[in-house]
Amino acid sequence: MKLRRSRQNLVFAGVCGGLAEQFEWSSFRLRVVWVIATIFTAFAGVILYLALWYLMPKENPGFEPAVAQPWRGH
């Protein structure tokens, strides 16, 4: 299991988006649960989020050419 912060599905740092993609959950629902859990645990979720932000590497970008090159003929 490779946890990675998401580059596409992010609001702040991509932690919840990366967790949602890894476990195939809805990122919206995960964020709602995270906020509710953070409120009910005296904001321990903030500390956990910051720790995951520091520990989880960013998702590797896929290869996407920066500019289309129609003259190459591929």
3D architecture notes:
The chain has 74 residues and is an all-alpha fold. The chain has one domain (1-58). The protein has 3 helices and no strands. α1 crosses α2 (27-40). The longest helix is centred in the middle third of the chain and has 14 residues, at 27-40. The protein is elongated and about 60 Å long. The model has no long low-confidence stretch (mean pLDDT 85).
Outline of the structure:
The chain has helices at residues 15-23, 27-40, 44-55.
How is the secondary structure organized here?
Blueprint: H1 15-23, H2 27-40, H3 44-55
Helix pairs in contact: 1-2
List key phrases describing it.
single chain; 74 residues; mainly alpha; 3 helices
Level of helix content?
A: 40-55%
User: Unreliable segments (pLDDT under 50, ≥5 consecutive)?
Assistant: none
- In total, how many domains does the architecture comprise? 1
Number of helical segments with 4 or more residues: 3
